Amino acid sequence: MCGIAGRILGAPGTVGKDLVDLMDAQAHRGADSTGFAIYGIPRETGYVLRGMGFSRDKVDSDLSHFTNILRDNGSDFLKDPEILIDSNKHYCFRMEISDPKDLSAWITDADSLANSIEIQSCGRSLEIIKDTGGASAVADKHNVRDMIGTHGLGHARLATESSVLPNASHPFWARPFSDVAIVHNGQITDYFTWKEKLKRKGYRFLTENDSELIAIWVSDQMKSGLSMEQALKKSLTSIDGCFTYMIASTNEIGFAKDRFALKPLVVIDESGNLAAATEEQAVRRIFKGENDVINYDGPSLTGIWGIGNRSLAA
After folding, report:
1. Residue 241, beta-bridge partner list
2. Mean pLDDT value across the chain
3. Statement to judge: residues 11 and 63 lie in one domain
4. DSSP single-letter state for residue 66
5. Is residue 312's pLDDT more than 80?
6. For the purposes of burial, counting CB atoms within 10 Å of the CB of 67, is it exposed (0-12), middle (13-18) or buried (19 or more)?
7. Percentage of residues in the chain with pLDDT exceeding 70?
8. Dihedral of the alpha carbons of 36, 40, 42, 43, in degrees to the nearest 10
9. Strand extents, DSSP E, the chain
10. Fewest C-beta atoms under 10 Å: which of 125, 170, 173, 292?
11. pLDDT at 209
């Protein structure tokens, strides 16, 4: 039932506001949690971290442990962490850090704290914001509408199997690869099989949500030498289930739709200005005129939308 969305601007602008509009239009598809993956202007050095702690009563001790691991890996905060606490038991954070000596090694060490504090995105450009509640509530709490960038993803979740907490919500970061995120509508039926295969290769999963698998699977295929286009096409025959997903990096958004074609995807693309969503009425929130809608209603479809150079491979 979940709703997904993607947005590409022709030039940096209020991508956060547009993604909120896209997800607010689809709030009826899942109000358990809402999430956004927003790609701002890439920084040359350092990373932005977004994430959550599971107990607001343990903020000080959580940050102390996290700081020690950060410094042990040759990194430190570039500014004081921003901690957001409200009536929920969990808390959210945004951090800016200098480059660790080895990004993957540092992420492995930081994930040792995953029972208390969890990194949900790491990027030069990417910031993932996700929390319980609908699009407007999450946007108000995290000032999503004010976020500037070139592109991004959105997700409205109806929790059917795993926890409602933000850590089980979309978008998912493809740990340990920086700046890669996915949103997914559907179900992966061979999730446990693939999860065990990837764990044996050294990858770590922090939730029981099947969608987390997609981000890591695609990134692993690209690490092995496939292009994003090739990885998307391979997923259609390698991953079992009914799904439509979108995956984003700093320079492109790709999508894949399984061979059963059960999960819809519609797009309006006006020469570098693109909106994609599960429902047409959502993309009409962005494009008010009589723009032509592309309805990807067939089976086994993949495509890539470039950021700036506007290439589509289907």
Report:
1. 188
2. 92
3. no
4. H
5. no
6. middle
7. 95
8. -100
9. 3-13, 33-39, 47-53, 82-85, 91-97, 117-123, 126-132, 149-157, 172-173, 181-188, 241-248, 252-257, 266-269, 274-277, 294-295, 301-306
10. 292
11. 85
Backbone angles phi, psi at 55, to 5 degrees: -140, 115
Residue 81 tokens read as 């962490």
Are 258 and 286 within one domain? yes
Give SS3 for 158.
coil
Q: Is 196 exposed, middle or buried (0-12, 13-18, 19+ CB in 10 A)?
A: exposed
- Which CATH number belongs to the domain containing residue 153 in this structure? 3.60.20.10
Q: Which two tokens stand for residue 288?
A: 């008010």
> Does one domain contain both 93 and 208?
no
> Does 313 map to a domain?
no
171 within a domain of the structure (yes/no): yes
pTM of the model: 0.94
Query: What's the confidence (pLDDT) of residue 145?
Result: 98
> Rounded to whole angstroms, how far apart are CA atoms 238 and 226?
14
Active site residue 242: no
Per DSSP, helices labelled H in the chain are 15-24, 59-72, 103-110, 135-142, 191-200, 211-223, 228-238, 280-286
Q: Determine the 3-state secondary structure of 235 from DSSP.
A: helix
Total domain count, the chain: 2
Same domain for 67 and 34, yes or no, is no
Judge if 112 and 248 occupy the same domain: no
Report pLDDT digits (tens) over 250-286. 999 999 999 988 899 999 999 889 999 999 999 999 9
Confidence (pLDDT) at 164: 64
Q: Determine, yes or no, domain membership for 311.
A: no
For residue 79, CA distances in Å to 66, 97, 177 come to 15, 8, 23
Number of neighbouring beta carbons within 10 Å of residue 78: 14
Which has the closest alpha carbon to 282: 31, 23, 37, 38? 23
* Residue that is last in its domain, among 90, 122, 154: 122
